[in-house]
Amino acid sequence: MTDGGYAGKLVAWVDTHCHIALDIVRKPKGQRGFAVLPHRWVIERTLSWLVRCRRLDHDYERLPAHSEPFIKWAMIGLMTRRLAPTPGLRPWQSTRES
């Protein structure tokens, strides 16, 4: 899934070389201004979680193969904290007594 900026030859190239069907997410006709597009916010949200990690805040690595392990470590840490959170109040819980 990608946005409209990557439409064109990229779709055919990915289909030919990677054998993956690439979907282009486009804005609805007549839309003005910002609106959340389906499924795209999931990608944007995940990227914002990743850049919270200090090492991933800037592109320090020369090759994507060097960045990949750091991305995997960041996601492992994120999922570990979600599966086994620290004891205490959860972010979605209210601080007020009911």
From TrEMBL:
UniProt cross-references to Pfam families, sorted A to Z: DDE_Tnp_1
GO biological process, one term: DNA transposition
Transmembrane segments: none
Top-level taxon: Bacteria
UniProt domain Transposase IS4-like: residue ranges: 2-68
First and last residue of the signal peptide: none
Single Gene Ontology MF annotation: transposase activity
The protein, known as: Transposase IS4-like domain-containing protein
